[in-house]
Amino acid sequence: MKLPQLQALASELGVAGVSKMKKSDLVAAINNGGV
Asked: Quick one: 9 exposed, middle or buried, by C-beta within 10 A (0-12, 13-18, 19+)?
């Protein structure tokens, strides 16, 4: 997935600070269920 897709998915899961996260951090947050 590309960064904008990951940001959108993370936002849907309620992850905070999505726009400032690196790609690897976004993937980890999504894998943790948005916690």
From this structure: middle
